[in-house]
Amino acid sequence: MLLLTIAREHKRNALSREMVAHLVSLVTDAAADNSVVAVVLTGQGSQSFCAGADMNEQREDPATSMTLPVVEAITRFPKPFIAAINGFAHGGGAWIASACDLRFGSPGAEFRFPGASYGMAIGAAHLPRIVGSAFAREIIFTAKRVSSEEALRVGLLNGVFGSDALLAETLDLAGAVAVNSLPALMGSKAVIDATMPIEEALALEAAVNSELRSSVDTASRFGRAASRVLGAG
Predict the structure, then answer these.
(1) Residue 48: pLDDT over 50
(2) Is the full-model pTM beyond 0.85?
(3) Domain 2-232: which topology?
(4) Is it the case that residue 7 has pLDDT exceeding 60?
(5) Which of 17, 40, 50, 128 would you label with 27, given CA atoms 20 to 30 Å apart?
(6) Nearest to 226 by CA among 21, 61, 9
(7) pLDDT at 227 over 60
(8) What is the SS3 assignment for 128?
(9) Using only C-alpha atoms, what is the Rg of the chain?
């Protein structure tokens, strides 16, 4: 079992380009390592799981998604991938969480897929597979905040544990997964994924966002959103 921690608490665990490359490399290596049966991903501290991309860096190249490579790497990971959501999972952080197989959260866990508010389609490929079409549309169309209670109710979280117990409980569950047959786990995941295809939807989402990124509406909305985030930081 492998534990990965997004360690940038002072930036709400926002990902820099260097961190993205390192995280993708770790996930890729773990996929090929037969000693790793399951992966647990969490954020540093108790306030934020991941705030997505570092807006300072993303604003330098708004035409390219910084978070997409992480989402793709987790989506294609052939073994169980589990998230311990220790706080806010907003934007790209929510997108990353939605790519995981299982999600456990603290009472302070909160999801938000704000793409529509700044002119992007974020999470639309993954979210319906987790919560169903109707809830996915509500969450994405409104860009609302989803509390741990609501996330548990609609299936976005598999369970909620106290903040102090979250990581230990998630690791215990991952341990219960990791004692099982790796070939059987990988085979089971492949079969489950086959019932809910994701690759075509993820490719379409990327194509839609590539077109949206070049629009005047998105440029205006993204600029305002980046300014708000940077002002808050």
Answers:
(1) yes
(2) yes
(3) 2-enoyl-CoA Hydratase; Chain A, domain 1 (3.90.226)
(4) yes
(5) 128
(6) 61
(7) no
(8) helix
(9) 17
The CA distance from 105 to 22, in Å, is 24
Whether 108 contacts 87, CB under 8 Å: yes
The domain locations on the chain are 2-232
Cβ burial of 182 (10 Å; 0-12, 13-18, 19+) is middle
pLDDT at 233: 47
Identify the CA nearest to 88 among candidates 118, 44, 123: 44
What Cα–Cα distance (Å) separates residue 142 from each residue in 116, 118, 139, 209, 211?
8, 12, 6, 18, 21
Taking the CA atoms of residue 15, residue 18, residue 19 and residue 22 in that order, the dihedral angle to the nearest 10 degrees is 150
The whole-angstrom separation of Cα 1 and Cα 59 is 36
Measuring CA to CA, how many Å separate 113 from each of 52, 127, 137, 146? 11, 10, 11, 9
- CA dist 7 and 14 (Å) reads 9
Q: Is 9 exposed, middle or buried (0-12, 13-18, 19+ CB in 10 A)?
A: middle
Structure letter (DSSP) for residue 15: B
